[in-house]
Amino acid sequence: MKKMKNPREEFKYIGLLDVYSYCLSEEEASELLTSFEGHQLKYEKNFKDFFIKTFHWAQEMPVYIHMSTFWGEDFNKLKPSHFNGYHLSKAEKKKVVQLLTYKTNTFKVSTIQELLLVVMLSTREIWLPIFFFPGIETAILGNFELSFPVYCKHQDAYIQLEKMAEESGIR
């Protein structure tokens, strides 16, 4: 993956995966987004469903993931203790620790299980990765409050992703 100064030059179709179809007021946000269980965990299954559909639609080609942290620490310097308090099972935490053994914070995933682990890390705001689907020339950015920017090079991909998002209960 190469770094771009302005992704809009190459990715003309830009959207947003979100639970809500409109910008929440301050009052709505403080009421609806305050509970981890009532927001992230409640809608995590919708995002997983969307990424499963996207993976299948992209012909199950590998997805490239660029992991970044918002702790201001290097990916390779993270310790298992960074993941306490995120509602991870022992098996999930073990998989996360395995990710830390990679020598780079950019890698490819080839299975639904690997992809869903990264989706879960993103919906729980543990990591905010960039998901790049080369087969459909699309990048999806993990972000806070389940509001993920989507960048597509082609209109047909954008339209299909929009349809799958709606089927998955996100917009």
UniProtKB/TrEMBL annotation:
| This protein's name | Uncharacterized protein
List the source organism: Viridibacillus arvi
